[in-house]
Specification:
2 domains; two-stranded antiparallel ribbon; 14% strand; alpha/beta; Rossmann fold; 5-stranded parallel beta sheet; binds adenosine-5'-triphosphate; 7 strands; 198 residues
């Protein structure tokens, strides 16, 4: 089955597009959500993370994101180590998830599709792009985060232009949801045309 990567910065509109793919019957794997679930539930992953980062990695049995973020924030080596433990586990889980699905293509939604290297396993990549100010406003409304908190996340992610350079489709989401839907329809039709016949 063909794999279509769906990525974009924080607040760009990935989840909105993912919802519309699901409504069309296309299976969508949310790599960010699944990674969180695995980090809290996969015994082997929990063991590896604890032995690398210490007992503090889990607080009352729950992954201590604040602790790990503080460790990896300014330490590239620790971040690399974290990724080298988590990404293969997510990759294996994704491969299992794919098994038995019957669809022209499946969508893998990931904020860090490029940063994690998983873009290499995709047959096509969609980037959803939007101006930073617009994204910040949307996320502030959605999550009650401060402008500074959102900006610091943006700083840790690739820029739109880096993502666009490596993408097959670009959807701009600077306007309303009606405009976004038209862009979605255009890309969806194109993907069906390419992948439906096999
Ligand atoms: P994150 O990476 O933070 O999870 P995301 O890329 O998945 O974000 P969405 O959750 O789809 O982005 O969109 C962010 C917020 O902005 C949501 O509340 C969504 O409903 C809203 N939104 C997205 N696109 C538009 C738009 N064109 N017009 C108005 N609101 C929008």
């Amino acid at each position: 089955m063909k794999i279509v990567g769906l990525t974009g910065g924080i607040g760009s509109g990935k989840s909105t597009l993912a919802k519309w793919f699901r409504q069309k019957g296309i299976p969508v794997y949310n790599a960010d959500d699944e990674a969180k679930l695995l980090m809290n539930n996969d015994p082997e992953l929990i063991k590896k993370l604890t032995s690398e980062f210490g007992e503090e990695t889990y607080k009352d049995g729950i992954y201590n994101r604040a602790y790990i973020s503080s460790l990896v924030f300014k330490n590239k080596k620790a971040l690399k180590k974290l990724n080298s433990i988590v990404h293969p586990a997510v990759f294996r889980h994704f491969e299992n998830w794919l098994n038995g699905l019957d669809s022209a293509f499946a969508v893998k939604e990931a904020a860090i599709l490029f940063e994690s290297g998983s873009w290499k396993d995709c047959d096509a990549i969609i980037t959803v792009a939007a101006d930073e100010e617009i994204r910040i406003k949307r996320v502030m409304e959605r999550d009650q985060l401060s402008k500074e908190q959102i900006q610091s996340r943006i700083k840790n992610q690739w820029t739109d232009s880096q993502r666009i350079e490596k993408s097959d489709f670009v959807i701009y989401n600077n306007h309303g949801l009606d405009e976004l839907k038209l862009e979605f329809d255009r890309v969806y039709k194109d993907l069906l045309k390419q992948y439906q016949s096999g």
